[in-house]
Structure formats: structure tokens, C-alpha cells
DNA sequence: GGACGATGTCTCCTATACGATACACTATCT
DNA sequence: AGATAGTGTATCGTATAGGAGACATCGTCC
């Protein structure tokens, strides 16, 4: 029998397959997984192998992530972060951080507005993590260095990169700069932060 | 033996485990998966069951997604979208869309700047997709309706929600509005768009 | 009504994921 | 050196994932 964690992937797979008008055998042929196996997976009679689920989601044109994401109904519908009510987190860095996310269950990315005082910079070690990151410059001039390469971001410019690459940045304008930062997977700034 | 699709999850798992200073047995106890199983998975000797990988990634504090994402080294280091060089996609909607992402392999979210002319709106059916979505109002006034609930976004306000919920929005200001939209998983606007 | 083709389900059998435990190796003690 | 505790690896038994094919049901055509 199948454990609690995985409950409902079967149901979801069946929905998607039906939605696309595919029969068990049709899907089976496409993806090289037997129809009986798919059937058992859909009924939650077995817990598929990683290889098998990947074949299936590929065949259905989805990702495993979205399959797992929507298993439980969200408790929060939407997280509304009003500009005037947003709290500002101020860690040691002297950089103002306003989180735009953090209110939904099982988020897959984080967003924050960063206020960077004149001359401030982030050193190389900090905020080094997995996944990807998008930085959009809203105000001021910020110089990014990623793996040796430098980029100067002015108002409206953005930079998208894999964030496990060594990266750091600096406010090179003569005034405060503001960045919008998106991280995936989400990081949890300020809260329960005990860096190993 | 293990198939091509899944190659390297093992390596990645081992890296993460070591990075956290955990031994096979330590991790094993935490997550109720035998150490020998973890070992074989790390060596790509077996293809783990969905339940098993989920236990492991949970124990390592990651998501399955990020495990699968970063399997291959990225070809692009960073995607720099300069404001003045950004192309504007104009679909039927009359809404200007400037993509900030789309340059990296295996992205997990999409970001775009939307320019919404006065009075323009998005109807309910459109942009209905899986995952989650963040909207940040940069300029103007936009009214969002999500599952019946309405939110008025002014400059600086943001809204974060599960995007499979029915949602639509409308520019209710007396001028053009601008939104920054983040979607996860990524959607591919404008390109190869043939809605089933 | 019977033949045919489609669907999903069930029943085996085999391949394999996983657990228990033994083994090899290294480091740090006494 | 020997003992002990830690590491990762190898072996083997069992539970189970997955494949081949039979079976039941429903529709359509003749």
C-alpha cells in the first residue's frame, strides 16, 4: 500500500490523462510504461519509481512539481502585501527587506523588495543557495558580479541567474537603490534564521 | 540499473547530505529509510520509489523539483534583460508584455512586466494555470478578483496566490498601469503558444 | 443477436526497491 | 597494538513495482 505523502498523485494523474482524452493503453505506448502499471499508480495501489513518474508526467506534459504541489488545498487563498502596511526586516546587513511572499502554503518562490543604502554591498558568501534568482532594479544603480562577469543594472533592468553560482552586488549609485528579488526555491529571510 | 532521466539525483543527494554533515545512518534514522537504500540511491544503483525520494528530500530540506532541476549544468550563466533593449510582446490582449526570464535552461518561474492600457482587463478564463503567481503593482491601480474576493492594488502593493484559482483583473485607474508578474511553474507567453 | 474494438480491471510472474546485517576501512582513544 | 566508534560498502532475503495477458463491460457496426 501507498504512504500518506504520495496520496493523490494517482488521482491527479488520472484527471490529467482523461483531460487529454488518452486511454491507459495510448499513454502506455507513448511513454513505455505498461498500462497495468499506470492503472495501479492511478489507483494508488503502488508507489511508482522515480523513473516511472517522470515518464508519466513527461507524457502528460506536466512537471512532477505541479503534481505534488496541488495535492492539498491551500489554507490561504491569496497573500496581499499592501505597500503601506508591509513590515521591514532589517538584519545586520543594513539592507531593508520587505517580503512579498510567505503567506501561502508550500510556496515555490520568494519575493522581496530590497532597499539598499548608498555604498552598501553584499559579499560573496551571503545568500548563496540553490535554485535560481531574478533581480529587477527599480531604482538606482546596482553592479552585479556573477562568476566573474559584471552587470550594471539601472532602473528597469533585470538579471536572471542560477543562484548557486557565486554572486555578489553593490550599490554603485549616489543614492539609495531598490531591487525586487525573486528566489526559487523560496528562502526564509529573517525568520527562524540560524545559518548552519 | 537506472535510466537516463534520473541520472544524477543520486549524486545530488549525496552532495546535499554531505554538505549538511549527515552520515548515511544519521539521515536514515531521521527519515525512516534504511541507510543501505540511501546508499544505493546515491550510487544510482536503484531508482527510488516516489515515497522514498520524497522522504529523502524532506529530510534534506529541499524539494524534489530543485533536485531534478539542477542536474545538468546550465549553459547560460545569467540572463540580462536591459530595460531599453527588451522586446515587447503584444498579443491580442493589447497588453504589453516584457519577459524578464526565458534565457536560462530549466527555469522554475517566469517574470514579466505588463503594461496595461486604461480600462483593459483580463477575463476569467485567460491565464488560468497551475502553480502560484505573484503580482506587484508598479504603477496605476489594478483591481484583482480571486475566488470572489477583490483586492485593489496600488503602487507598491503585491498579491500572491495559487494561480489555479479563478482570477482576473482590471485596470481601474485613469491611466496606464504596470504590473510585475511572477509565475511558477514558468509559462511561455507569446512563443509556441497553441492552447489545447 | 453476434462480431468487433474500445475501454478499465484483475491475475499472475519476474525484476527490483528496500531492509537487516555483515564486512572493510579509518580515526581516535587507552 | 588493541579496542571502540565512526564512516561507506556488499550480500542476501523479502516486499513490491512493473509487464504480459486474460477478463469484464460498454459501445458500434453488420
Could you characterize what this model shows?
The structure is a homodimer of 196-residue chains. Chain A is α+β, with helices and mostly antiparallel strands and 196 residues long. The first copy, chain A, folds into two domains: 9-69, lambda repressor-like DNA-binding domains (434 Repressor (Amino-terminal Domain)); 83-184, Jelly Rolls (Sandwich). Chain A is 22% helix and 27% strand. Chain A has a five-stranded antiparallel sheet, with no helix packed on it. The longest helix of chain A is centred in the first third of the chain and has 11 residues, at 9-19. The two termini of chain A are 37 Å apart. Chains A and B meet through helix 4, helix 5, strand 1, strand 5 and strand 8 of A and helix 4, helix 5, strand 1, strand 5 and strand 8 of B. Strand 8 of chain A pairs antiparallel with strand 1 of chain B, so a sheet runs across the interface. The structure holds a DNA duplex (30 and 30 nucleotides).
Q: In this structure, how is the largest beta sheet of chain A organized?
A: 5 strands, antiparallel
CATH superfamily membership of the largest domain in chain A, which one?
Jelly Rolls
- Assembly annotation: homodimer
**From the helix content, strand content and strand pairing of chain A, which structural class follows?**
alpha+beta
Task: Compute the average pLDDT of chain A.
Answer: 72
H/I helix tally of chain A? 5
Task: List low-confidence stretches of chain A.
Answer: 1-5, 71-77, 189-196
Q: What CATH architecture label of the largest domain in chain A applies?
A: Sandwich
The chain pair forming the largest interface, with residue counts per chain, is: A-B, 69 and 66 residues
Number of domains of chain A: 2
Shape of chain A: elongated
